[in-house]
């Protein structure tokens, strides 16, 4: 995730890999009312088979899609061997072919080369997020295209003719990303943009002439620049008043326009374009929610647009010339994700995902019917034993409406009320969405109601709501979680006295804050690599976040000028107030929330004489991507909750 993107700050956890929250699930059509709380409350209770964590983790994760040059095969990523590797398979369906076969470090598919069977993949080391870009030759040999220590690189795309591709790397200066042009045949490279100002490179045009970059002014305000690479001339294309976020989406294939999203004209991001000849702007598409992505097929026949509609992503395909929506055949229930149109513009690959269905890969020949290529859900799991989520809302302490995603277990009834959890997403600025989540389905399957709160400051609900947490961390957003607990207590199928709180990354910070700043509200807390000391976290952020440093300081606090405030809002300095059982999980290689954050809070809370469980994974970073670690981590979370929330919440905690 790019730090400059408005949708979430860099502390946000990559939930798709770590907590099993994959892609948005079925939701009402745009403009249709979301399922009310009553719909979940009135669901008919049914006996549900309970499954072990091994059953949930045995489902296969798949993501990414790239067509081969002849469009006969697809390149994608999967964790079916326990860690993420790269595979290919026939478009017609069939056996998978290993492209990488690591048992240790995760590899992810980037792209086939446009004219042959070579592929590009990316890989870090043990979750340290120092990604390198590798070319894998047709004979299977591998070449690191970005060699060196302590550098981070990423692929920006091939030129339209396929003769070259662009890569960003911070090897020259660890704070900033330069742009390099690689020859597709020889891999010889030339630096085409030296970054001395901290702007973040986003997209290079297909003709290689233009580079779009973003600048984060605050977490709510950004600017967009276009650089002519031949001359170095930079043009700001985001003149605006007040706070507004601009995000580059794609250059038109004819090289005449930059398409971008911006929320300067209202609460939500809309799709517009700017002429590269005159710098005049034109509207393209509008929506009642944030348009979050747009991209062209290679020759410009199609424009795909994604909109975040109340926690679900709507993807629509348009005729790029007329703007008319292109009808698609009837698809199985679920949301389209990861859409990729073949260069011939005759077919597309995509994923379908739903609450009860992890990502499954499909191919659609335009004019034909979709073909399912993968079946990801473990066949030992009956989808009927899983649960559907619903969108619910409550009014917080000051009347602000708070959106949430609710998962209700089949077995929870008024006669048999269930324990419950407030689930807090990462960020700040993330969003809990309607999605398949292995860990949430596991908890619901074992009888826990889960309320995924989108507290003030979450993305997806307008820029005013997004900005409502600025400078207020540890206070108003936290108070929303207390109101979430009260909402759960209003449901007759929830046990009022058995409500805990769980979250990862910034959500983990919220867990610790709830226990330290609102003692007595929650019976237990599960902190998954959350911040305990803002001063240390802000002083130890990776150097490649330099372009985002000031924006993060304005959001959370400046460790040089607001030290007292950060002490006030850091749970570590108030750990003596934590008087209920706490579980902490941490990756030893986490570059975002470093291990001392968890070490120190564990040591401090242990002094209070309350149960503390601490799980460290030596081969993980900011997220638990390996199946063996997910089995241990999720399994231990359930055991902790069963011991201290389901069975032990009636025992009063010791005095602080």
UniProtKB/TrEMBL annotation:
Keyword Disulfide bond: no
All copies of domain Peptidase S9A N-terminal, residue ranges: 158-329
Keyword Acetylation: yes
Peptidase S9 prolyl oligopeptidase catalytic domain boundaries: 437-646
Recorded superkingdom: Bacteria
InterPro entries, per database record: 6-blade_b-propeller_TolB-like, AB_hydrolase_fold, Pept_S9_AS, Pept_S9A_N, Peptidase_S9_cat, WD40
Residues in the signal sequence: 1-27
TM spans (from-to): none
Record GO biological process: proteolysis
GO molecular function terms attached to this record: serine-type endopeptidase activity
This protein's UniProt keywords: Acetylation, Hydrolase, Protease, Serine protease, Signal
Classification via PROSITE patterns: PRO_ENDOPEP_SER, PROKAR_LIPOPROTEIN
Role: This enzyme catalyzes the hydrolysis of the N-terminal peptide bond of an N-acetylated peptide to generate an N-acetylated amino acid and a peptide with a free N-terminus. It preferentially cleaves off Ac-Ala, Ac-Met and Ac-Ser. Also, involved in the degradation of oxidized and glycated proteins.
UniProt record similarity statement: Belongs to the peptidase S9A family.
Name of the molecule in the record: Acyl-peptide hydrolase
Species of the source: Arenimonas metalli CF5-1
């Amino acid at each position: 995730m790019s730090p400059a993107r408005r949708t979430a700050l860099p502390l946000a956890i990559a939930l798709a890999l770590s907590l099993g929250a994959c892609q948005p699930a079925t939701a009402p059509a745009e403009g249709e009312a979301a399922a009310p709380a009553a719909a979940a409350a009135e669901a008919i209770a049914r006996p549900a088979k309970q499954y072990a964590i091994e059953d949930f983790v045995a489902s296969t994760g798949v993501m990414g899609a790239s067509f081969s040059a002849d469009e006969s095969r697809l390149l994608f990523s999967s964790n079916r061997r326990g860690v993420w590797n790269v595979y290919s398979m026939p478009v017609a369906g069939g056996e998978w072919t290993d492209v990488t076969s690591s048992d240790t470090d995760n590899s992810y598919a980037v792209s086939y080369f446009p004219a042959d069977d070579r592929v590009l993949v990316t890989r870090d080391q043990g979750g340290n997020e120092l990604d390198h870009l590798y070319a894998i030759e047709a004979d299977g040999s591998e070449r690191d295209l970005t060699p060196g220590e302590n550098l981070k690189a990423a692929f920006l795309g091939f030129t339209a003719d396929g003769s070259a591709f662009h890569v960003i790397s911070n090897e020259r200066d660890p704070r900033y990303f330069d742009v390099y042009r690689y020859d597709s045949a020889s891999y010889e490279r030339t630096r085409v943009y030296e970054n001395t100002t901290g702007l973040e490179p986003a997209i290079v045009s297909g003709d290689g002439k233009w580079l779009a970059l973003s600048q984060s002014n605050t977490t709510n305000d950004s600017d967009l620049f276009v650089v002519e690479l031949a001359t170095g001339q930079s043009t700001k294309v985001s003149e605006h008043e007040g706070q507004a976020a601009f995000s580059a989406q794609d250059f038109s294939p004819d090289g005449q326009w930059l398409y971008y999203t911006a929320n300067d004209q209202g609460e939500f991001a809309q799709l517009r374009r700017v002429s590269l000849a005159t710098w005049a702007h034109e509207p393209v598409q509008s929506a009642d929610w944030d348009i979050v992505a747009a991209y062209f097929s290679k020759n410009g026949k199609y424009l795909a647009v994604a909109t975040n509609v109340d926690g679900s992503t709507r993807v629509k395909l348009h005729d790029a010339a007329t703007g008319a929506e292109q009808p698609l055949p009837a698809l199985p229930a679920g949301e389209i994700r990861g859409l990729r149109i073949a260069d011939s513009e005759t077919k597309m690959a995509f994923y379908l995902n739903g609450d009860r269905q992890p990502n499954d890969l499909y191919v659609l020949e335009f004019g034909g019917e979709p073909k399912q290529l993968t079946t990801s859900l473990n066949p030992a799991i009956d989808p009927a034993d899983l649960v559907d989520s619903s969108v619910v809302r409550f009014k917080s302490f000051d009347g602000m409406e708070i959106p949430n995603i609710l998962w209700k277990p089949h077995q929870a009834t008024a006669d048999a009320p269930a324990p419950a959890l407030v689930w807090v997403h990462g960020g700040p600025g993330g969003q809990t969405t309607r999605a398949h989540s292995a860990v949430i389905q596991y908890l619901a399957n074992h009888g826990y109601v889960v309320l995924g709160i989108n507290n003030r400051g979450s993305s997806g609900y307008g820029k005013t709501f997004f900005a409502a947490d600025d400078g207020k961390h540890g206070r108003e957003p936290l108070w929303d979680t207390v109101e979430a607990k009260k909402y759960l207590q209003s449901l007759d199928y929830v046990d009022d006295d058995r409500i805990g709180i769980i979250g990862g990354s910034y959500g983990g910070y919220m867990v610790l804050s709830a226990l330290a700043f609102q003692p007595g509200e929650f019976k237990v807390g599960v902190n998954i690599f959350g911040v305990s000391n803002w001063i240390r976290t802000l002083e130890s952020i990776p150097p490649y976040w330099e372009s985002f440093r000031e924006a993060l300081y304005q959001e959370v606090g400046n460790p040089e000028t607001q030290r007292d405030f950060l002490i006030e809002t850091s749970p570590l300095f108030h750990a003596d107030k934590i008087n209920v059982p706490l579980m902490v999980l941490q990756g030893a290689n986490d570059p975002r929330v470093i291990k001392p954050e968890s070490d120190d809070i564990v040591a401090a809370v242990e002094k209070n004489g309350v149960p503390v469980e601490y799980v460290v994974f030596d081969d993980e970073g900011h997220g638990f991507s390996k199946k063996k670690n997910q089995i241990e981590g999720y399994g231990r979370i359930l055991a902790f909750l069963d011991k201290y929330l389901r069975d032990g919440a009636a025992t009063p905690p010791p005095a602080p």
